[in-house]
Design a protein that fits this description.
It is built from 4 helices and no strands. It is about 85% helix and about 0% strand.
Length: about 150
C-alpha cells in the first residue's frame, strides 16, 4: 500500500471521527439547553417565594440568556455541517460573544439598580465594566459587519 493512499484513509478516518464528536457535542448541548430552559420556567414559578423579587428575576433572566448562548453554539455546529463547513464561518462565534456580553451587561445593570448601599468605589467599578462591555459589543458588531461585507463581495 503506498503512502498517499494510507494518508488518504487516515485523513478520512479523522474527518469522520470529527463529525461523530460534533454530533455528540450537539446532542449534549441540546440536552443541556433543555434542562436550562426547564429550570428557567421553573424559576418563573418560584419567583414569588424569593424574599427579594429582583433576585428571582435575575436568576430567570440568567438561565434564559445562558440557554440562548447554548443555542448559538448549536447554530455554530449546524454551520459546520452546512455548506460553509470549509469556510469555518466566524459569525456564529461573534454572536455567542455578543449574547454573553449583553447577558453580563444586564446582570451588572440589575446589580447597580438593586444594591442596598451606595459605595462610590464599587460604582466606579460597575461603570468601568459597563464601558468595557459596551466597547467589546461594538467591536464584535463591527466584526460581524465586516464579515457580511466580505461575504457579499464574493
Amino acid at each position: 500500500m503506498n503512502l498517499a493512499r494510507w494518508n488518504y484513509y487516515v485523513q478520512e478516518f479523522f474527518v469522520k471521527f470529527e463529525r461523530v464528536l460534533y454530533i455528540l457535542i450537539g446532542l449534549g448541548i441540546l440536552i443541556a439547553t433543555g434542562f436550562i430552559i426547564f429550570y428557567g420556567f421553573k424559576g418563573i414559578l418560584d419567583i414569588p417565594s424569593y424574599v427579594n423579587f429582583t433576585e428571582g428575576i435575575i436568576g430567570v433572566l440568567d438561565k434564559f440568556l445562558i440557554a440562548m448562548m447554548f443555542l448559538e453554539v448549536f447554530y455554530t455546529l449546524q454551520v459546520i455541517f452546512g455548506e460553509e463547513y470549509k469556510l469555518k464561518c466566524l459569525e456564529p462565534f461573534l454572536l455567542v460573544g455578543i449574547i454573553a456580553l449583553v447577558r453580563r451587561l444586564l446582570i451588572v445593570g440589575f446589580e447597580i439598580a438593586h444594591t442596598s448601599s451606595f459605595d462610590p468605589e464599587r460604582f466606579k467599578y460597575y461603570l468601568f465594566e459597563i464601558l468595557a462591555i459596551g466597547i467589546l459589543i461594538l467591536m464584535l458588531i463591527g466584526g460581524i459587519a465586516i464579515l457580511r461585507k466580505l461575504r457579499v463581495g464574493r
